[in-house]
Amino acid sequence: MSRFPLLTAAALGALTLASTACSHAEDGGRPPVLDALQGQGLEIVEEFDAGAGLRGFAGVAGQRPIAVYVTGSGEAIVGTRVDANGEEVDAGRLQELVASPMGERIWTQLESAQWVRDGREDAPRVIYAFSDPNCPYCNRFWQAARPWVDAGKVQIRHVLVGVIKEDSANKVAAILGDADPGAALARNERAYARGGIPPAATVPADVRRVLDANHMLMMELGFGGTPALVFRDADGTVQRRGGMPQGGDLDVVMGPR
Predict the structure, then answer these.
(1) What distance in Å separates the CA atoms of residue 142 and residue 188, rounded to the nearest whole number?
(2) In angstroms, rounded to a whole number, what is the distance separating the alpha carbons of residues 29 and 220?
């Protein structure tokens, strides 16, 4: 796992992570310190204008946009740059160069995954949810989403994984093997307190491939558990949430009722 997501989340200012003597820092060549940072898990996407005395580079670490500033002496400063008022200076550049393209790529990956639809096909808002049939928080999210789904405002596309209990994969097999997977998923959620739907006796090879692919995608997107949500906010920006949305954040995820 990359070290950078934890550092950037905690950073109140810029954090110097690496220093390398660099004859290319001022002549427009690629600063060697970037290679050192890439070895630590940071992917450099594109250079941007950071003003006098610095070269700015937009990067990605653990699915998070991150800025790198290289000084004339070759030192790399990784993190958040703020102005005299404490406002982020390069957030717009990172959004344009990294966050937006990365979000669209994630959305395309999810569209291509195998998922189970919950809600009307023509609902104006789509939410992808990595879900496990045995996950209590997935069930809470399913219950909390009913006003939006029943009103036709939201369609939830459940990307099913089997990670909670030994029979999770078998329950996914029962859902995907049903003539109406959406109805089978709903039966499982409605009966969750009573143990959910009966698991299938076996997990067919095609279902196992779906489970493996969905779990790999979940991990690739930086999620460590379920529910894991991906949605577009009011501005169309792709956002992610790990876990059950709390308080007013549920309205942010689900949108207008």
Answers:
(1) 11
(2) 31
CA 171 from chain centre, in angstroms, equals 25
Q: Which residues are CB-neighbours of 167 under 8 A, at least 6 positions away?
A: 134, 199
Its pTM stands at: 0.71
- Phi/psi at 157 (nearest 5 deg)? -105, 105
How confident is the model at residue 10, as a pLDDT?
Answer: 29
**Alpha carbon distance 246, 28 (integer Å):** 47
pLDDT of residue 99: 66
Tell me which residues of the chain have a pLDDT lower than 50.
1-26
Outline where 39-99 has alpha helix (H): 91-94
What is the Cβ-side half-sphere exposure of residue 247, based on CA atoms within 13 angstroms? 1
Residue 216 burial by CB count (10 A; 0-12/13-18/19+): exposed, middle or buried?
Answer: exposed
List the strands of the sheet with 116-118, edge to edge. Answer: 116-118, 154-160, 125-131, 228-232, 238-242
Measured CA to CA, the distance from residue 14 to residue 158 in angstroms comes to 38
39 secondary structure, DSSP code: T
Burial bucket for residue 32 (CB in 10 Å: 0-12, 13-18, 19+): middle
Mean of per-residue pLDDT scores for the chain: 85
Write the CA distances from 65 to 12, 56, 147, integer angstroms. Answer: 16, 13, 34
* Displacement of CA 214 from its chain's centroid (Å): 13
| Helices then strands, each counted (H, E), the chain | 10, 10
Phi/psi at 82 (5° precision): -120, 155
Contact 118, 190 (CB under 8 A): no
Q: What is the pLDDT of residue 28?
A: 65
CA distance 28 to 217: 37
